[in-house]
Design goal:
The protein is built from 3 helices and 14 strands. The longest helix has 14 residues. The protein has one domain: hypothetical protein yedk fold. The protein is mainly beta and 189 residues long. The strands form 3 sheets. Strands 3, 4, 7, 8, 11, 12 and 13 form a 7-stranded mixed β-sheet that branches.
């Protein structure tokens, strides 16, 4: 699962993406507040990549049947689930992030861990859709089984697309996990 990620205010690459999205947000009929740094929570509006050089502001979470936002989709089953199927086929995206967080249960206590790659932006795989009564799109983050020792912290992790497979993910193949980045650093925060 991926319940929170973060954007580093000092990352020049992501700040360039943010400036593009902020200019685009002026074209929307209502004022859009884009979260440009720090911890990103479900329902925040953030920059999302939809094509090789295409970015848009999007809200994190599909509207769920119970009114709660659905923020993640299992990569193994997203193509079969009615909620995600059309988006997975035609509207895949990437969510730029400096890293993400997971919590490890230790009895009644939870320990927060930060996952990242030093000096490298992560591209979290996702899909998006237009929801009723909204002028912006909503996205979910795809998750996969955690590997390479990360499962000791949490059994799921976001699917992270390496730079060399960005075009493949966005335009060719909805099979994200086959190219996912697995070598992350993590530390308790």
């Amino acid at each position: 699962m991926c319940g929170r990620f973060y954007i580093d205010d000092d990352d020049k690459e992501i700040q360039g993406i943010i400036s593009i999205v902020e200019r685009k947000s002026l074209d929307y009929p209502e004022k859009i507040t884009i979260k440009t740094g720090g911890d990103i929570f479900p329902t925040d509006i953030v920059p999302v990549q939809t094509g090789l050089d295409q970015f848009a502001p999007m809200k994190w979470g599909f509207s769920g049947f119970d009114g709660k936002p659905v923020i993640n989709a299992r990569s193994e089953t997203a193509l079969q689930k009615p909620m995600f199927q059309k988006s997975m086929m035609a509207r895949r995206c990437l969510i730029p992030a400096s890293g993400y967080y997971e919590w490890q249960k230790n009895g009644a206590k939870k320990i927060q861990f930060r996952f990242y790659k030093p000096d490298r932006l992560l591209y979290l795989a996702g899909c998006y859709r237009q929801e009723k009564d909204s002028s912006i799109f909503n996205f979910v983050i795809l998750t996969a089984q955690a590997v390479n020792g990360l499962e000791a912290i949490h059994d799921r992790m976001p699917v992270i697309i390496p730079r060399e497979h960005i075009n493949t993910w966005l335009n060719e193949s909805p099979n994200a996990a086959e190219h996912a980045v697995r070598d992350l650093i993590y530390e308790a925060v």
